[in-house]
Predict the 3D structure of the following.
Amino acid sequence: MRGGMLQVSLLSVGYDGLPIVREVSMQVRTGEIVGIVGPNGCGKSTVLRGIAGLAERLGGSVYFQGEEVSRLQVHELTRMGLGYVPQTNNIFLSLSVEENLRVGAESVAPHLFAEQLAKVAEIFPEITARLKLPAQSLSGGMRQLLAIARALMGRPRCLLMDEPSAGLSGIVIERLFKRIVELSGEGLGFLIVEQNIRDLLKICDRLYVMAGGEVRSEIIDVRHGGVGVEDVLRMFA
C-alpha cells in the first residue's frame, strides 16, 4: 500500500463497536481520481467517514502523505490537507456564502484568503457571484457546489467527496466533473463515492467496487480501459 498520497490499509469502521466496513484497503495517488461504487447500504459513505475521522475506526490504519493519521480528527486532517465534503449537512445555512468560504479557509493564513478566493472563483464563478447571499437561499444544487468550494478554500491535497453529483442537473454535473479532472491535473487527488456510475466512469483513473461492507474488486485504468456500467453492476453481487 505504500506509494500513495492517501493509503488506507485493512480499515474497519463502525458505530458503537459494531463494524459496518471490514478490512478495507485502498489508496489515492497524487493527482488521481479514484471512485467508490456499490449498492445502497454497502458501506461506501462509512468508509469516507472513517478516513475523515467522523466514524469509529475499529482497526487498520490510515496514512496521509506518509504520516499515520488514524487517531486524528477531521479538523486536524483538514489542516494537513485532507478535505471532506459530506453529502448532506455540508454547509452552514445560517451564514452567508462568503462566511461559509471563510470557514473553509480557517487553515489558510488570513492574508491569503483573497488569493484563494480568486482561485475558487475561477472554478466556481456561480458561487462567488453570490457571496453576500445567505446560504439558505441557495438551491440544493448550488448548496452542493458551495460545499465543494468551501472545501477547496482550505487548499487540500486530497479531497474525499460523498455523492458530489447529488441534486445537480446533468449540465452542472458535466461542468463539475470537468473541473474535478482539471484539478486532478494540478495534483489534487480525489476519493469519490458516487451512485452516478456512468458519469463517474468518464473521469475515474481507478475504481473500487464495494458490497457487503468489503471491497470486492479494484478496476484500474478505468477511463481508458473500456469499462462499462453493466460491467461494474455485475460486480455488485
